[in-house]
Amino acid sequence: MKYRKLGSTGLNVSVIGIGTWQFGGEWGKDFTQNEVDAMLDKSGELGINLIDTAECYGDHLSERFIGNYLARRKREDWIVATKFGHGFKGHLQREQLWSADQVLKQLDDSLKSLQTEYVDLYQFHSGTDAEFENDKLWSMLDRQVQAGKIRHLGISISASGTGVHQTASAQAVGAEAIQVVYNRLERGPEEEVFPLCAKHNLGVLARVPLASGYLSGKYKPDAAFPTGDVRANHNADTRQKQLLEVAKIAESEVPEGIPMAQWALGWCLQHPAVTSVIPGCKDVAQVIANAAAADLGMVKDGQSL
After folding, report:
1. CATH number for the domain including 68?
2. What's an example GO cellular component term for this entry (predicted)?
3. Measuring CA to CA, which residue among 136, 130, 124 is closest to residue 99?
4. How far apart are CA 137 and CA 102, in angstroms?
5. For residue 294, is pLDDT > 90?
């Protein structure tokens, strides 16, 4: 495994992390604690130290799986990132909870679920610019940093906006890392967000690096997804267009002998602004495959990964 500093946080994170939205049950599978334990054990064995979760991946369900695991392992071996701003109300249904008091309760609930005294990275989760401009919220969060409940603050940019205002304002609210959708099919952050991150020394976590699995190479343009899988709600025409593009990429860009999913993760990591990618996984085999992307020989700042 390879590691990079996450912006100005001082956190040394693995270039491959583990995303855990799937643990909340919205990707067509319900998980058991034993399955989660096996994936996290294999992740640790392979040198992965970054876990990304959220309050609304299930009603703190993903966090509880992780917390149960951490309670039986060395907490200091892991960098745990979670998020705030929403309440889980059902499959793909979220309640907006942005007041300082609401977020403080979310933080305490997350700490309880994660069975930890602190969160390494606590992230504003896909909120609007209006929700972001809340001095009381950021003052409360700063107090939690001072109290030791939060080590570092971050911003997880909504997929529906550019994220430019929030990225440019990150330092003003004490945030040191940006999480953003970035993959071979969705390159918008390269235009303004990544230059801002470089200018202000903000770490970058690239989420959805496999484009919701489309860049895994598993799916044909006419692929269908079962009810209960997030991808079943994607626009059918957009999905087909993206999968047609994936087929072209597989033919023209992916080197022979390299699995497309590994190539897609390595592709993200070659951008000098990106600190780590956080793909999801459904089993131990996917953990192993994801971790292998760290050794593809991609280059950052003139140096081999």
Report:
1. 3.20.20.100
2. cytosol
3. 136
4. 9
5. yes
